[in-house]
């Protein structure tokens, strides 16, 4: 019989955060090993529970949540999201401009599928959250990676962004606050990106899922609040700030230059209808999430658990010879650099695998984030301080051997 093959549409689709190294870690766990996981930004798995008032809302409404809802989401949830866009100073958003999805992930797929012809190009940061590159490829498009510069606090290199624009470029993705680097973009930079989008008629896809996970008095500006002529699609959701990743609930907000985008919006509406609607029970938590007590700030304030863990992980990593790391003021990740003169890594997936096999610590290699070099990896600082200390101690031991062999 003929072998059953995957579609050629997957030829350029890659998502290494859940790739072969994770598969090996799972096998090791099945064999009875304890693996310390610094690989996935899933707060609830590390004792960062979703706020109880959100859970109670979902539970209370379960009995009325068995049917489909409007394709774009429950009215009350979208109204709450609309109010949130007002808090973030995004102008002229109506309930109808808001799409609730099964996580930001689904909406990224929807927004790219609705836009791209084969070989259309999208500017995506390098390093990136790799779903963006994967989604563009799956939609037939081509990801053109613009460099974020580690020497400049990982901010996008605008000359490189401009240089990557061609006749088929349709959109710019910005991930702000950023995964994996933790960079936070200043307003002047956001305005410059808007200017580029304006000049070339591009959409701005703004992934802002970490907009409330801010340390050291950092503040976040939604890029969509800075202009009303360029078309913005802004993404956010319950997974990170509200520690409810398993609810699979996110939203996309269309704002700015909507008038010339009516055809694209029709496409978005069609794709939203085709999947009927997003998970309904979790939508009952959105209003309280956005309007209720923001317990995320208890975690990010100077004595908060997340802030303390960021400081600890950063200190332990940068104490290792040949390891340097930008100290992020946002999100859940560190993206350290391994000096190639100390650590001449040829294949960083192999490096991650060896670390896993020898020290039972799971990280994600930098190339998994479409970073073109083999000198970075990402750690998640969600595990508690004891586990972080243990894990980074093991990384240090591994690197010491690596350097001396
Ligand atoms: N965007 C970024 C930048 C992320 O880091 C993640 C998850 O890690 C997502 C989107 C996916 O979010 P969701 O759980 O809402 O699908």
Automatic annotation (TrEMBL):
One Pfam family it belongs to: Aminotran_1_2
Among SUPFAM superfamilies, the record links this protein to: PLP-dependent transferases
Q: Which InterPro entries match?
A: Ala_Aminotransferase, Aminotransferase_I/II_large, PyrdxlP-dep_Trfase, PyrdxlP-dep_Trfase_major, PyrdxlP-dep_Trfase_small
Q: Name one GO molecular function term.
A: pyridoxal phosphate binding
Organism annotation:
Nitrosomonas mobilis
- Family indicated by similarity: Belongs to the class-I pyridoxal-phosphate-dependent aminotransferase family.
Kind of enzyme, top EC level? transferase
Put simply, this protein is called: alanine transaminase
Every copy of the Aminotransferase class I/classII large domain together lies at: 35-395
Q: Which gene encodes it?
A: yfbQ
Could you tell me the EC number(s) of this protein?
Answer: 2.6.1.2
Q: What are the record keywords, sorted?
A: Aminotransferase, Pyridoxal phosphate, Transferase
Keyword Protein biosynthesis among UniProt keywords? no
Q: Which domain of life is it from?
A: Bacteria
Cofactor dependence is on: pyridoxal 5'-phosphate
